[in-house]
Write a structure and sequence with these properties.
Radius of gyration of chain A: 21 Å
Strand content of chain A: 5-15%
Structural class of chain C: alpha/beta
Number of domains of chain A: 1
CATH class of the domain at 3-91 in chain C: Alpha Beta
Distance between the termini of chain C: 45 Å
CATH superfamily of the domain at 3-91 in chain C: NADH:ubiquinone oxidoreductase Nqo5 subunit
Largest sheet of chain A: 3 strands, antiparallel
Order of helices and strands of chain C: HEHEEEEHE
CATH topology of chain A: Cytochrome-c3 Hydrogenase, chain B
CATH architecture of chain A: Orthogonal Bundle
Order of helices and strands of chain A: HEEEHHHHHEEHHHHHHEEEHHHH
Helix content of chain A: 40-55%
Strand content of chain C: 15-25%
Chains: A alpha+beta, B mainly alpha, C alpha/beta
CATH architecture of the domain at 3-91 in chain C: 2-Layer Sandwich
CATH class of chain A: Mainly Alpha
Oligomer: heterotrimer
């Protein structure tokens, strides 16, 4: 019997609630089986797989160029970074020398993707806490980034801009100009975000000290990305194992040690500034050269195992390819960040209220297709 | 022969002439009965119009805060949008879940409509335009408006849905708690007026509104009233009962079609009522802005019809409440109750004492 | 610690562990199911190795045997290792869970169970995670055929 029950002196009965698969705040088809005592959460049991498309199995039948396209559909908010991860793995297997121009462009677009993802997250975070206005603000600014993407590669969400060996085609002549315009615009708008939510008393009440998870637990659960860094886990792959052009730019790894929802929120807010800082350094220094290294039409990776880690907007994405020197891989495993991040939800949510759970899930920034693959 | 003494400034002659005509044409009993039916029909029409226009206004105001246009497609500037919505809601299938308590489920939608409908009858819209001017007017409003919570509890219980039940329980706890603060903050002004009758309260503000005359306690009371009444009507940032991101739609999750429209309508009428009561008690209702004995100024203000004063004041209060709703995140239920029991209620009780001292010492104007 | 030191250390603990000679991306250690858990526990808690972060856990079907691959790294020391456990018994593959060492393994092992049918002993809640509970067979195995929903690419 818990303390509240003994104090009241009467028996209370625990009950279950199915949160999802159709629920406004699971942002997709995730089902959480909640064990509740009144409004207090005793246990959270995630049930997933509603959008499982067996991408890993499909990869075993596809050529390496085709695999890239499937990865868009995992974490659709950091699709470019997912594509990049596969391309980097294939390039590692082929031991291809990638033109400098490609590396820089990939890095810029990756950071733009991260910005867009965080903008959407910020809007959704506000919406989950009941401040719907923020959602529209987030979308307003994200639209400008998707416009840039659209001009460069023709797609707004699932971009497929990467191919093994480089990029599908060169950047649009307007790319640099528009990106700079966007940065100048968004640097003014970011303080607006902070004004609307960050300093708000209700917001702080709702997030500070809520959903605490310790650094040990974060490492043990493999919670990465901004969610892990909110608990002081230095897990930024861009720093630990720099890929593309991250070794030549200067940026801070944002770390907060509080481990609560507010810390995870602040990590993302600060990360947006760092992303803009990275783009600032690169946008004027895109080297001339080819946008693609020469590859054979049918790529065959030498037999062996290749593992590439990248930092998506949600955390560490691992691509594990086992090749047996055929045109399709023998086995592909995607270590998706959302899957591991979700596993920590039960630890975070115990003893909180339903409303806190919603805030917590927002700060984990779950994308369901990324979890289910 | 019907004699219509219609004046936009004073409706009492107009109403009386209709009454006289009815009584003279028919027998007194039938005449009064017809009068009652007429008044009821007027209120029905008014409620429907109010719902239609408030939904449209809220959507436009919300769009304004969110940097978009809001409804623009149906009719000029989307003005016919809510009519289209109502038509859609009427023609929608009214679903009832299998395991629900069907009688209570249907009853809840009517109970929830009933409370605001009765309260409307006591609201003075303009000089002489008030259905019930009782000597316990304010008390009547406070007590009747709490019938609404029964409807919410019934809806939550009979839906046989856990989300609905959580929503209803939250709402019950919330409304019952915040009613205290609402009542006490209104009582603070009643100390000055010395009457619960709404016409008296308005008349006492003929030389200035209580928000200006009542010294600091009146301002504190108004702030508390606005917070508490927002919570009482389940509007954001206190919309815990229907927090869509947590418990889908709370107590009205299982309602569809026209019954859902009733809940929606009740919410907006309640919204209007709290603004109207706030405007009446603190801002003089239909009373134009008067400053003491400044006759010229007062006469100039009197030139604007009272009905415009009333709806103008209500609109301003509503705009502020909408502003809150579309800006702030939602509180958590325990934080909400903490706010009431630990802060608002003690402050309003102290404020009540303070106001008694002010009234005794004559520190108000 | 560099790879050679870790290799030495692992061989000192468990001389049976098989460490392929060719230099890959990571240091590979191939073990049998019996010594997986003791070795993992040593790697996890030994002060010099301190592999506290399991960043990937995957199943592989090598037709002749099943394999579970553990990618480990140390958050403070920075070195990496890949543990591979070879399970010869395809009919009833069993291996000890590592949930008690790395909590993230709980979900990942459920996924491997779901897709490859490897049973993890002592796992607190070994159920299917991505597929429905009544799914027949283990789709990621190379010998899996799904007559009803077959899609040939």
């Amino acid at each position: 019997m818990s303390t509240e029950q003994t104090v009241l002196g009467n028996e209370t009965q625990e009950y279950f609630i199915n949160m999802g698969p159709q629920h406004p705040s699971t942002h997709g088809v995730l089902r959480l089986l909640l064990t509740l005592d009144g409004e207090i959460i005793r246990k959270v049991e995630p049930h997933m797989g509603y959008i499982h498309r067996s991408i890993e199995k499909m990869c075993e039948k596809d050529s390496y160029q085709q695999i890239v396209h499937l990865t868009d559909r995992m974490d659709y908010l950091s699709c470019h970074i997912n594509n990049e991860a596969v391309c980097l793995t294939v390039e590692m297997g082929l031991q291809l020398e990638i033109p400098e121009r490609v590396k820089v462009i990939r890095t810029i677009i990756s950071e733009l993707t991260r910005l867009a993802s965080h903008q959407l997250w910020w809007g959704v975070m506000g919406m989950d806490l009941g401040a719907i206005t923020g959602f529209l603000y987030g979308f307003r600014d994200r639209e400008l980034i998707t416009d840039i993407f659209e001009e460069t590669c023709g797609a707004r969400l699932t971009m497929n801009y990467n191919v093994p060996g480089g990029l599908m085609f060169d950047i649009h002549p307007n790319f640099q100009k528009r990106t700079k315009e966007f940065l100048a615009y968004f640097k003014k708008k970011l303080p607006e975000y902070e004004e609307l939510l960050t300093g708000n008393v209700i917001f702080e009440e709702r997030t500070k000290g809520i959903g605490y998870i310790s650094k040990e637990d974060v490492i043990s659960y493999g919670v990465t990305g901004p969610s892990g860094r909110g608990s002081g886990f230095a897990c930024d792959i861009r720093k630990l194992h720099p890929y593309s052009a991250y070794d030549r730019v200067e940026f801070k790894e944002i770390l907060y040690n509080e481990g609560d929802s507010y810390a995870r929120y602040m990590v993302r807010m600060d990360e947006m500034k760092e992303s803009m800082h990275i783009i600032d350094q690169l946008i004027d220094n895109i080297p001339e050269g080819d946008y693609k290294a020469k590859t054979k039409a049918v790529i065959k990776l030498p037999a062996g195992e290749y593992y590439q880690r990248v930092e998506t907007a949600r955390g560490e994405l691992g691509v594990y390819i086992i090749s047996d020197n055929k045109k399709s891989p023998y086995r592909v495993k995607f270590r998706s960040p959302g899957f591991s991040n979700l596993s920590a939800l039960d630890t975070m949510a115990k003893g909180c209220k339903i409303a806190d759970l919603v805030a917590m899930m927002s700060t984990l920034d779950l994308v369901i297709p990324d979890i289910d693959r | 022969m019907i004699l219509l003494n219609f004046s936009i400034y004073d409706f009492s002659d107009f109403i009386n002439s209709i009454d006289t005509w009815l009584v003279e044409t028919f027998s007194p009993t039938i005449g009064h009965l017809i009068g009652l039916v007429l008044v009821g029909t007027c209120f029905l029409l008014f409620t429907a119009l109010l719902g239609l226009s408030l939904v449209y206004i809220e959507r436009k105001v919300c769009a304004f805060f969110q940097q978009r246009l809001g409804p623009m497609r149906v009719g000029p500037f989307g003005t016919a949008q809510t009519i289209a919505d109502i038509i859609k809601l009427i023609f929608k299938e009214s679903l009832i879940t299998k395991q629900s308590d069907k009688f209570l489920f249907n009853l809840a939608a009517f109970v929830i409509m009933m409370a605001p409908f009765i309260v409307l009858s006591a609201i003075p819209f303009a000089k002489g335009l008030q259905a019930l001017d009782m000597d316990i007017g304010l008390f009547f409003i406070i007590s009747v408006s709490s019938i609404g919570v029964t409807g919410i509890l019934l809806a939550g219980w009979s839906s046989n849905n856990k989300y609905s039940l959580i929503g209803a329980m939250r709402s019950g706890a919330q409304i019952v708690s915040y009613e205290l603060s609402v009542a006490i903050s209104l009582m603070t002004i009643v100390i000055l007026t010395g009457s619960l009758q709404l016409s008296e309260i308005i008349a006492s503000q003929s030389n200035g509104w209580w928000i200006f005359k009542g010294n600091i306690p009146a301002i504190i009371a108004f702030v508390i009233y606005i917070i508490a009444s927002t919570a009482e009507t389940n509007r954001g940032p206190f919309d815990m009962a229907e927090a869509e991101s947590e418990i889908t739609a709370g107590f009205h999750t299982e309602y569809s079609g026209i019954k859902f429209a009733y809940f929606f309508l009740a919410e907006y009428v309640n919204f209007f009522i709290i603004s109207a009561v706030g405007a009446t008690v603190f801002f003089g209702g239909w009373m134009p802005l008067h400053i003491g004995d400044a006759t010229f100024f007062n006469n100039a203000m009197d030139f604007i019809p009272p009905i415009i004063w009333f709806f103008g004041k209500v609109a301003v209060i509503m705009y502020f409440l909408m502003w809150f709703k579309w800006t702030f995140p939602r509180l958590r239920i325990d934080q909400l109750l903490t706010l009431e029991w630990k802060y608002l209620l003690p402050i309003s009780i102290v404020n009540l004492l303070l106001m008694s001292i002010v009234a005794l010492k004559g520190w108000h104007w | 610690m560099n790879n050679d030191q870790i290799k030495e250390k692992v061989l000192k603990w468990f001389p049976d562990a098989e460490i392929p000679a060719e230099a890959g991306q990571f240091l590979n250690v191939i073990v049998t199911p019996e010594i997986l858990h003791p070795l993992a526990e040593k790697l996890r808690y030994d002060k010099e190795t301190h592999f506290d972060y399991l960043f990937c856990l995957s199943g592989v079907d090598w037709v002749s045997n099943l394999m579970v691959v553990y990618h480990l790294t140390s958050t403070n020391l920075g070195h990496e290792i890949v543990l591979k456990v070879k399970i010869a018994d395809r009919e009833n593959p069993e291996v000890d869970t590592v949930c008690d060492l790395w909590k993230t393994a709980e979900f990942h092992e459920r996924e491997v169970y779901d897709l490859f049918g490897v049973k993890f002993k002592n796992h607190p809640d070994l159920r299917r995670i991505l597929l429905e509970d009544d799914w027949e067979g283990f789709p990621m195995r190379k010998d899996y055929t799904d007559e009803a929903n077959i899609v040939e690419l």
